[in-house]
Amino acid sequence: MSVASPVSDERLAPTREQLRNDVWLAAAMLVSAILSTWLGHVAQVWGDDPPHLGWGLLYCLVLTAPLALRRRVPEVALIAVAVVYFVGMSVHIPEMYVGSIALFIAMYSVGAWVADRRRAMIVRIVVIVGMFVWLLATMFQAASDQGGESAAEFSLFSPVAAMMMLQFLFNVVFFAGAFAFGERAFVGALSREELEQRTRELEREREITAAQAVALDRVRIARELHDVVAHHVSAMGVQAGAARTVLDRDPDAARRALTVVEESARASLAELRQLLETLRTPDAASPRDSTLRLDAIGELVRYAEENGMPTTFSVVGEPVAASEVAQVNLYRIAQEALTNARRHGGPDARADVRLRFDGDEIELEIANDGRVRFGAKPGLGLVGMNERAAASGGWLEAAPRPRGGFLVRARVPAGMRSAAPNERTVLA
């Protein structure tokens, strides 16, 4: 079974620039090999009868050409360079250095660019073992050619043995270095790929987080606009209708109704202006800057009575300090519930608002005895109340009462809970 690498072949695919650089490397190695072969021929490194210089030029070309493909087919390039190097040294091509460098580069390329690590290991081990077998055979042949000399000259400290040991150690360091550098390059590629992947994941998470923040802001804006517009505009509609009805027979009543419409319009504009300023100024987005608190629920009750719906208000229990978020959300829930009662409960509807303090929890209950629309789909007002209760760590119940009318009950902790709220939402 092949050992797969975490880095795929696609990830290891060389770029055009890298392939172009490999061609330039092969060309530079070819020029160096030709120069080294010519100098070795002139210096007669293999004696007075070296091979023809044309064979040396062919050797240089075949030796360096595979390096141009060292990233595309690194295993083939290594095997080709190793075979050509073996043949060239066997026939005494007078080139002493570029061949070793080409072999080092080819072996490094296998370690750095082959995704299948088992195949890369096998190819390199085969080449290394073959080279050491050739080296040992050459050393044995050299020792056999010196068989007529005295035994002392072949001792451990003889010049011949020292030269053999020097060649052996040099080849150990040579192949170990090529092997180690290739492995380190591949591990570095893995680390870079992992870092790039994490960077991409972080970028995606940042985009998702930004999109979620925008969506949450849009929901918050829509909820605030709904609360402001629905509360005041519904009251303005009721008072305008009442003023139109009594305009001819009771001008004073019509004038009072129009006064309420005017006040509602001004209050609506004031709240809209405050909301827009909050949106324009990030520092003003904190709930602590809001004037909507539990103390202001009494004003909602008075406003409902002035708009023709008798409403009672009572506080049960010892008041406790509540978080700003809880106070704003409970105020908005009361505002929406009273608006719905006034809009849908009919002309004879009555409402009762109760604020209970139960230890570290606060319960708000708004009940009315008006008519109920059955079969209607829950509107945005009920959805917004549910979101506000959940945002405060509590729950909301909104459903018709058995004896008639509609009940909205919200219960939230005085402070924010870190755990998920206990969902207990019932929508009509």
Write up this protein.
This protein has 428 residues and is of the alpha+beta class. It has ten helices and five strands, in the order ααααααααβαββαββ. The protein has helices spanning 16-43, 53-64, 74-90, 98-113, 117-145, 159-246, 251-280, 297-306, 324-344, 380-391; strands at residues 311-316, 351-358, 361-368, 395-400, 406-413. Strands 1-2-3-5-4 form a five-stranded mixed sheet, covered by helices on one side. α9 (324-344) links the parallel β1 and β2 (351-358). It starts with 15 loop residues before the first helix and ends in a 15-residue tail after the last strand.
Helix-strand blueprint:
Layout: H1 16-43, H2 53-64, H3 74-90, H4 98-113, H5 117-145, H6 159-246, H7 251-280, H8 297-306, E1 311-316, H9 324-344, E2 351-358, E3 361-368, H10 380-391, E4 395-400, E5 406-413
Parallel strand pairs: 1-2
Antiparallel strand pairs: 2-3, 3-5, 4-5
The largest sheet, given as strand count, sense and whether it forms a barrel, is: 5 strands, mixed
Task: Output the helix-strand order.
Answer: HHHHHHHHEHEEHEE
Instruction: Provide the low-confidence segments as ranges.
Output: 1-6, 148-152, 283-289, 417-423
What is the beta-strand fraction? 5-15%
The global form is rod-shaped
> Mean of residue pLDDT?
78
Number of DSSP helices?
10
Short structural summary:
With 428 residues, the protein is of the alpha+beta class. Helix content is 61%, strand content 8%.
